[in-house]
């Protein structure tokens, strides 16, 4: 990431939905010290050209596979099926990939080995979660159990593969309904657009097969709510976060802000957190 160099670190963004577009605008014009927006990629780049052209400097619009050659850091804000095609070229060149679709890492665990072999790095921002610092600290000792209970508005869960496969109808429910209970690995597979937080939690702690998850479709809530309960040999702690959905009801507004905060830390004179 060009540590010690006066040249700005080049950032590319794969995906220009609610998260990617907000990150791009934050980077524009040196909005994040030491970084510059070098390139972007999107399925339909023409749709985004009007606002891209309003930026102080128009980034290059490139195919996904070309982003790693145009930047030092590639930020993945795309559908999970594209994670490999975004991350592999970056880390195999010794560069950094910031991954939001962290659930896809469970199906592409070799990417971690690829990063290690080539001096690259995969960074998972805190995203819509809370307490990853505490979790990573507790993991230096022994964690006995981790449980996450997620409650989401109904519209944010409609269409999830798990619901389709099990013929679970949630439209029109009038009271909270538990629709899933199992491991973080199973949750990520059944709810790929919803449960990246569970995978991030599991990777920070005791793994995807020991981290337990409950998911509730709840017509009484308007925010994506996650309650996390951890028992370890160093501390017992509970955390609750209620995220305001972005334009995409499956994603919390704070997720984009988390990426921006993550990028800002890279050259910050003071860095807070583990």
Q: What do you see in this structure?
A:
Helix 1 packs parallel to helix 10, helix 4 packs parallel to helix 5 and helix 8 runs antiparallel to helix 9. Strand 10 and strand 11 form a beta hairpin. 30% of the residues lie in helices and 24% in strands. It has ten helices and eleven strands. It is of the alpha/beta class and 274 residues long. The longest helix is centred in the last third of the chain and has 13 residues. The strands form two sheets. It has a six-stranded parallel beta sheet with strand order 3-2-1-4-5-6, with helices on both faces. The chain has a five-stranded mixed beta sheet with strand order 8-9-7-10-11. It folds into two domains: 130 residues, Rossmann fold (3-Layer(aba) Sandwich); 119 residues, Dihydrodipicolinate Reductase, domain 2 (2-Layer Sandwich), CATH 3.30.360.
Write the H/E string, N to C.
EHEHEHEHEHEHEHEHHEEEH
Strand elements, count: 11
Overall number of structural domains: 2
CATH topology of the largest domain: Rossmann fold
Quaternary structure: single chain
Q: What does the largest sheet look like?
A: 6 strands, parallel
Instruction: Estimate the strand proportion.
Output: 15-25%
How far the N terminus sits from the C terminus, by CA atoms, comes to 19 Å
Please report the first level of CATH classification, the CATH class of the largest domain.
Alpha Beta
Shape: globular
What's the helix count? Answer: 10
């Amino acid at each position: 990431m060009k540590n010690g160099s006066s040249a700005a670190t080049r950032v590319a963004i794969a995906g220009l939905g609610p998260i990617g577009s907000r990150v791009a605008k934050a980077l524009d014009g040196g909005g994040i010290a030491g970084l510059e927006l070098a390139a972007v990629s999107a399925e339909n780049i023409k749709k985004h050209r009007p606002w891209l052209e309003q930026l102080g400097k128009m980034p290059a619009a490139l195919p996904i596979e070309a982003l790693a050659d145009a930047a030092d850091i590639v930020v993945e804000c795309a559908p999970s099926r594209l994670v490999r095609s975004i991350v592999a070229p970056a880390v195999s060149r010794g560069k950094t990939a910031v991954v939001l679709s962290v659930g896809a890492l469970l199906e592409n665990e070799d990417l971690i080995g690829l990063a290690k072999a080539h001096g690259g790095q995969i960074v998972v921002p805190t995203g819509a979660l809370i307490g990853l610092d505490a979790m990573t600290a507790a993991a230096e000792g022994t964690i006995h159990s981790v449980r996450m209970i997620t409650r989401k508005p109904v519209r944010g869960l409609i269409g999830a593969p798990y619901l389709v496969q099990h013929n679970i109808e949630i439209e029109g429910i009038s009271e909270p309904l538990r629709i899933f209970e199992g491991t973080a690995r199973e949750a990520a597979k059944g709810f790929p657009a919803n449960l990246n937080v569970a995978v991030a939690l599991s990777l920070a702690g005791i793994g995807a097969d020991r981290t337990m998850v409950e998911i509730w479709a709840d017509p009484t809530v308007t925010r994506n709510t996650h309650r996390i309960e951890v028992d370890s040999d160093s501390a017992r702690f509970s955390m609750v976060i209620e995220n305001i959905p972005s334009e995409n009801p499956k994603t919390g507004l704070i997720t984009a802000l988390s990426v921006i905060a993550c990028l800002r830390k890279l050259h910050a004179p003071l860095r807070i957190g583990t």
